[in-house]
TrEMBL record:
GO terms for molecular function: DNA-binding transcription factor activity; sequence-specific DNA binding. Gene3D superfamilies: TrpR-like. It comes from Holospora curviuscula. The lineage of its organism: Bacteria, Pseudomonadati, Pseudomonadota, Alphaproteobacteria, Holosporales. This is Trp operon repressor.
Length: 99
């Protein structure tokens, strides 16, 4: 990643850290992303949660309508996460729900 893009990404991450409520996050995402980008992000997160529950690619496809290619891409990142983003968030959600 080029230095300018890395700085932009770092500033975006800092902006996310300042958000305090679900409404603030929602409004920021709605301003920041196109409807297609939001749909893609939401779809990937939904697939991640289904994979974490142990559903098969076919079951996820039937439940969500997501392509097997997209499911496979999310699965690869979930299994071989270089940044542990999905796993970190899944753990935080589990902890916040008291499971």
């Amino acid at each position: 990643m080029r230095k300018r893009n890395r700085n932009n990404l770092e500033h975006l991450c800092q902006a996310f850290l300042l958000l305090e409520t679900e409404v603030e996050v929602y409004n920021f995402l709605k301003d920041l992303c196109t409807p297609s980008e939001l749909e893609a992000l939401s779809e990937r997160w939904n697939i991640c949660k289904h994979l974490h529950k142990g559903l098969s690619y076919r079951e996820i496809h039937e439940k969500t309508g997501s392509s097997l290619t997209t499911i496979g891409k999310v699965a690869r990142f979930l299994k071989n996460e270089p940044y542990q983003g999905y796993t970190t968030m899944l753990k935080k959600l589990k902890k916040s729900s008291g499971e």
